[in-house]
Automatic annotation (TrEMBL):
Pfam families: eRF1_2, eRF1_3, Pelota_N. Gene3D superfamilies: 3.30.1330.30, eRF1 domain 2, Pelota, domain A. The keyword Hydrolase applies. Transmembrane segments: none annotated. InterPro entries: eFR1_2_sf, eRF1_2, eRF1_3, eRF1_Pelota-like_N, Pelota/DOM34_N, Pelota_N, Ribosomal_eL30-like_sf, TF_pelota. This is Protein pelota homolog. It is found in: Cytoplasm. It comes from Paramecium tetraurelia. Its main location: cytoplasm. GO terms for molecular function: hydrolase activity; metal ion binding. GO terms for cellular component: cytoplasm. Residues 385-408 are annotated as: Disordered. Residues 1-130 form the eRF1/Pelota-like N-terminal domain.
């Protein structure tokens, strides 16, 4: 993501950014909060009535100022970040207080104005500055007749494509089976070639039970030697790393990333994996937490109350916290955990903020989204007087719906807000060719 400009004074101000790749959507999702104001250009369906009374609709690109009401992020087979908000700057095409849903686009400028920039937001901005393009690793997890191609970025893991082909199990139809497997491998190669994926990634992990991975690799070698269009591209095969998995489905991804050979291979890539490949850091530290949990349960803590108690004793060596917890909607809760994070760092402890879109982040969310590895053994034999106090919000819960109020009353921009916009250079404009 490119940061074009930034002006933040005492936690109040704006940034102007351009998302350039898929991971940037996740960074934006974590930067945005309900109540922020965004300025961008967007498409809006405009309905006009002709002189004959017929209605004609057209899509028009317009400028909008939206006060954020709801933020949704999806990263399955398609990627989408949508921001629903109410218009707080009246225009010819959008009345004051009217709802509009903006779908974030790559290479489209967006201004984010916040009145509560905190350490969590600054940490995301630092990640954006350090981010390198094309640092992704791809994983093709397969078994006979089914394959899942995943992209593992610095902040997200998402399914790029699923390949399926019916393969007969009958030994008597061996020739037919071999032909079906060849067609399956061709489909897998086509998935790799889509959007020049094979050429761009730094490492391709091919995983399967049995010998499917080996057969696929041999298929690729034969194709690259025989076909003219692959002439001179044999070095691309050096990116491939074969590893065993228990299945050809996505639930094997965590097991693959925990494989010692995979971790060693990724460590040896040209990029410094510990700095830019956060997914591997998350996997390794979560593995360390579970190992300690098996060895000595008194030297780990998980759940809000236990972690807070361990922190009060100064016993936390490493804090594992999900971004779901760190970006809590309640500012008081968010500030509380940011304070804990800062105090642990100041005492020489380590803090890892896990992405909920990585398998490791999802696994941490199953343990309430917050855990810690401790310096010393701690007994948690205190009475729990407050029932359900440390329960976390269910994974995947959408932002709570807010009651609809009259747009003029709730979103009318007073002179103070207008003055802030002028101070921070967020002047309005109706011409979409203007620089946002």
């Amino acid at each position: 993501m490119k940061i074009l400009s930034k002006k933040i004074i005492k936690g109040v101000g704006f940034i102007k950014v351009v998302p350039e790749e898929d991971d940037d959507f996740w960074h934006l999702y974590n930067l945005l909060s309900v109540g922020d104001i965004i300025k961008t250009s967007t498409h809006r369906k405009i309905v006009k009535e002709s002189q004959t009374g017929t209605k004609v609709s057209e899509k028009r690109r317009i400028f909008v100022f939206l006060k954020v009401h709801e933020i949704n992020y999806w990263a399955d087979q398609y990627l989408l970040l949508s921001i629903k908000g109410r218009n707080c700057q009246e225009s010819h095409w959008l009345s004051l207080g009217q709802f509009h849903t903006y779908e974030v686009e790559l290479n489209q400028k967006i201004v984010i104005y916040k009145e509560n920039w905190d350490r969590f937001h600054y940490a995301i901005l630092d990640q954006i500055k350090q981010q390198q393009t094309l640092s992704e690793v791809a994983a093709f997890i397969m078994e006979e007749g089914v394959g899942h191609l995943c992209l593992i970025g610095s902040a997200t893991t998402r399914l790029k494509q699923k390949v399926e082909k019916q393969i007969t199990k009958k030994r008597s139809a061996n020739e037919q089976r071999e032909k079906a497997m060849e067609e399956f491998f061709k489909a897998c190669l086509a998935a790799l070639e889509q959007d020049s994926l094979f050429e761009q990634v730094k490492c391709l992990i091919v995983a399967s039970p049995g010998y499917v991975k080996d057969d696929f690799y041999q298929f690729l070698r034969n194709i690259f030697q025989k076909e003219e269009k692959y002439k001179g591209k044999q070095k691309m095969l050096d990116k491939i790393f074969l590893v065993r998995s228990s299945s050809g489905y996505l639930n094997s991804l965590m097991e693959i990333l925990q494989d010692q050979q995979v971790q060693q291979r990724l460590e040896n890539t040209k990029q410094n994996i510990r700095k830019i490949f956060r997914a591997m850091q998350e996997v390794m530290i979560l593995e360390k937490f579970f190992e300690q949990l098996r060895i000595d349960i008194t030297k780990v803590a998980y759940g809000k109350k236990d972690v807070e108690f361990a922190h009060s004793l100064g016993a936390i060596q490493t804090l594992l916290i999900s971004d779901k917890v760190a970006r809590a909607k309640d500012p008081k809760v968010r500030r509380q955990w940011l304070k804990v994070i800062e105090e642990i760092k100041n005492k020489g402890g380590e803090v890892f903020i896990f992405s909920s879109l990585h398998p490791s982040g999802k696994q941490l969310n199953n343990y309430t989204g917050i855990a810690a590895i401790l310096y010393v053994s701690v007994s948690f034999d205190y009475e729990d007087d407050d029932e359900d106090e440390d329960e976390q919000e269910p994974v995947g819960q959408q932002i709570h719906q807010q009651q609809h109020q009259h747009a003029q009353d709730e979103f009318k921009m007073d002179m103070v807000v207008q003055k802030k916009f002028e101070e921070f250079g967020m002047e309005d404009g109706d011409d979409v060719d203007d620089d946002i």
